[in-house]
Amino acid sequence: MFLLQRLIFIWWSLMVVASSIAACCYLIFLIGRLLHDIIRFQQIKKLLKAVFDEREKDIYYWVEKLHAQNFVFSQGENILYYAIKNHRKRAVQYLLSAHVPIEYEINHRFRVSVLSMAIVEKEPLEYIQLLVRAGADILYLDSFEKTPLQYADESERSDRTLIVTLLQEALQKRNTKYE
What's the number of domains the chain is made of? Predict the structure, then answer.
């Protein structure tokens, strides 16, 4: 009986130690993850600052380092739309040359076009022209099953006809290119 009690005590002691070790390992994992997230957040802030200040070398550096081509903010915007929204024309040009996508997906479910967003949010015409010249897909179907051309056609923008014409011309060029 005494031996059985000793074995139960040893087994229980090992379980307490093992659970403590597991808890410590998990705590170390959480701390490591938190530090990683803090560092990533600081790096993203540096990218946003570089875009806002339109610093070409820093934009290229941080886009490459963070693989920011596919980075999407919680609002569903990528870094390219952030630059457009803040009217940073040179930054938009740098991001386009760094191959930040104009069309992208969020969580493999929600399809977004920066061109559609720029049309709907009434961003200046010069940004829409930049996106079209960079090869934006005029017929890209977003998650609402609408294309940038449809958004432009339904828009209440004062420059609506200019945008529709621009998109139709780009579409014609694309179609003649493939004929």
Answer: 2
pLDDT band with cut points at 50, 70 and 90 for residue 55: very high
- Final residue in a domain of this structure, among 84, 101, 118: 101
Please name which of 59, 106, 64, 109 lies closest in space to residue 80, comparing C-alpha atoms: 59
Instruction: Render pLDDT for 110-162 as a digit per residue (tens, 0 to 9).
Output: 888 999 999 999 999 999 999 999 999 999 999 999 999 999 999 999 999 99
**Residues 58, 90: Cα–Cα separation, whole Å:** 13
Cα separation, 28 vs 19, in Å, equals: 14
Question: CA separation (Å) from 72 to 107, 111, 125, 157?
Answer: 10, 12, 24, 27
Which residue range forms the structural domain that includes residue 133?
102-179
